[in-house]
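Researcher: We plan to redesign the surface later, but first we want a full-length starting point. Tokens attached.
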């Protein structure tokens, strides 16, 4: 009887763990570089191109929120620039992808 109880609760625990979703937020740093091909332009034979000033790349960053389950990443969300991330924002993000059991998924508006 004790073995049956142990086996039953062990299986419930595995099911429970599979239902968990966790999240993480992090900053993604990036910058864009202008390639030679993008900066090329047609010039007359005797003409010289415009003088280019050496530009330093400005590093930009965006906040990224990711949600995971036991299988891996299930949702990825980039936070718009200037948006404050608080509990209300997390609820808004969760509503975009999470459908409670038994509820029908709402049709997305175009």
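Model: Full-length starting sequence:
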């Amino acid at each position: 009887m004790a073995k049956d109880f142990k086996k039953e609760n062990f299986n419930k625990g595995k099911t429970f763990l599979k239902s968990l979703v966790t999240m993480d937020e992090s900053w993604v740093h990036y910058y864009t570089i202008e390639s030679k091909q993008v900066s090329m332009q047609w010039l007359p034979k005797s003409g010289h191109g415009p003088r280019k000033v050496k530009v330093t790349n400005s590093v930009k960053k965006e906040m990224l929120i990711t949600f995971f389950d036991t299988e891996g990443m299930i949702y990825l969300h980039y936070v718009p620039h200037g948006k404050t991330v608080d509990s209300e924002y997390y609820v808004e993000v969760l509503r975009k992808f999470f459908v409670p059991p038994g509820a029908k998924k709402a049709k997305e508006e175009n």
